[in-house]
Automatic annotation (TrEMBL):
Protein's recorded name: protein-disulfide reductase
Keywords: NAD, Oxidoreductase, Repeat
Domain of life: Eukaryota
Catalyzed reactions: [protein]-dithiol + NADP(+) = [protein]-disulfide + NADPH + H(+); [protein]-dithiol + NAD(+) = [protein]-disulfide + NADH + H(+)
Source organism of the structure: Lupinus albus (White lupine)
Pfam families given in the database record: Thioredoxin_8 (PF13905)
Residues of the Thioredoxin domain: 11-162
UniProt record similarity statement: Belongs to the nucleoredoxin family.
Length: 382
């Protein structure tokens, strides 16, 4: 659905037999009440993991903007039964197309060319499509993106570019409502107290195997550097899912881990966690971004250098990284084809590789049988 297309919101959501939407308590709200409001059309489903992860972000923005009285969200369910719809919708503060009206739900799905969920289309007060990439806008800009116009987004992008040029530790780690990080014993540590130190921002997921494998190595390096009196701190940036059903368990797991790791952390579910992930353009986990004493980024990810060189990677400066790269090049050059394929007494044969490939293909086909394929951010129609 191209931007600049304009819709009449009354005809968009109503039928000849229905002139209302419903709230989560089955209260009927006249569609006429949407006139003059900005509207978000939210395509989502209870079975969709990425949707459950995104919904709390949208809810936070919605609740913040509700005070203005000129923004509404309409939920268009992709659930398979009314019971699932009601259970999922009961936690949402906005309105919905009745689940029984499958014709309207399907029509909206086709009209806005929904290929995957979560999917959010944003309309301005005249019904004009501002963007059909609303999930990305909400994730990246939150309530600051309001009214979600291209002019506002450009303004925020310009501000971010300016912030990167004048980056400081305070500009990265603080927010309008928080000027501290959390210590391993739960105390609030002012970000200003960390200025002048080398800071490693550790982006990870609690239950991710790659993160679990790397964390002990980082713990060891951190302990050695602290023992040597280095001005070095690790600040964890927890990126665990925002699925409400798992919040308490995840938060407790993070707290337990923090006590054993002895480093600092941003608060669980703090908005800055996702914002920082986008700011540093994360493409992999775990990621360890290093900020120098001057508040500038020294390196976007030193995980591999710590895995390979341990404490020798410190202080993660361009000069040190260049030195380590030369060491790695020399090591790679000395490898033979046989040393790559032979691991101990075990030879990696082409036959084993083919078998592994077959297993991966079978797993993919099984996913496709259900009609949807999901990754961390979205579920696509197969």
């Amino acid at each position: 659905m191209a931007e600049s297309v304009t819709h009449d919101v009354v005809s968009l959501f109503s039928t000849t037999h229905r002139d209302f939407l419903i709230s989560n308590n089955d209260h009927q709200v006249k569609i006429d009440s949407l006139k003059g409001k900005k509207v978000g059309i939210y395509f989502s489903s209870s079975w969709c993991g990425p949707c459950r992860k995104f919904t709390p972000f949208l809810e936070e923005v919605y609740n913040e903007l509700a005070r203005k009285g000129d923004f509404e969200v309409i939920f268009v369910s992709a659930d398979e039964d009314d019971e699932s719809f009601k259970a999922y919708f009961s936690k949402m503060p906005w309105l919905a197309i009745p689940f029984s009206d499958s014709d309207t739900r399907n029509h909206l799905d086709e009209l806005f060319d929904v290929k995957g969920i979560p999917h959010l289309v944003l309309l301005d007060e005249s019904g004009k499509v501002v963007t059909d990439c609303g999930t990305e806008v909400i994730r990246e800009y939150g309530v600051e993106g309001y009214p979600f116009s291209s002019e506002r987004i450009q303004e925020l992008n310009d501000q971010e570019d300016e912030a990167k040029r004048n980056q400081t530790l305070t500009s990265i780690l603080t927010s309008p409502t928080r000027d501290f990080v959390i210590s391993s014993d739960g105390k609030k540590i002012l970000v200003s107290d960390l200025e002048g130190k080398t800071i490693a921002l550790y982006f990870s997921l609690t239950l991710d195997k790659a993160c679990s494998d790397f964390t002990p190595q980082l713990v060891e390096v951190y302990a050695k550097l602290k023992a040597e009196g280095k001005d070095f701190e690790v600040v964890a940036v927890p990126l665990d899912d925002n699925d409400d059903d798992d919040d308490e368990e995840e938060e407790e797991s993070i707290k337990v881990g923090l006590k054993s790791f002895h480093w600092l952390s941003l608060p669980f579910k703090d908005q800055s966690c996702e914002k920082l992930a986008r700011y540093f353009e994360l493409s992999d986990l775990p990621t360890l971004v290093v900020i120098g004493p001057d508040g500038k980024t020294l390196h976007s990810n030193v995980v591999e250098f710590i895995e390979e060189h341990g404490i020798a990677a410190y202080p993660f400066t361009p000069e040190k990284i260049a030195e380590l790269n030369e060491i790695q090049k020399a090591k790679d050059a000395s490898q033979t084809f046989e040393s790559i394929l032979v691991y101990g007494d075990q030879v990696l044969s082409l036959e084993k590789m083919e078998k592994g490939k077959g297993k991966d293909d079978a797993k993919e086909e099984k996913k496709l049988e259900d009609g949807w394929v999901c990754d961390d951010e979205v579920c696509f129609k197969a």
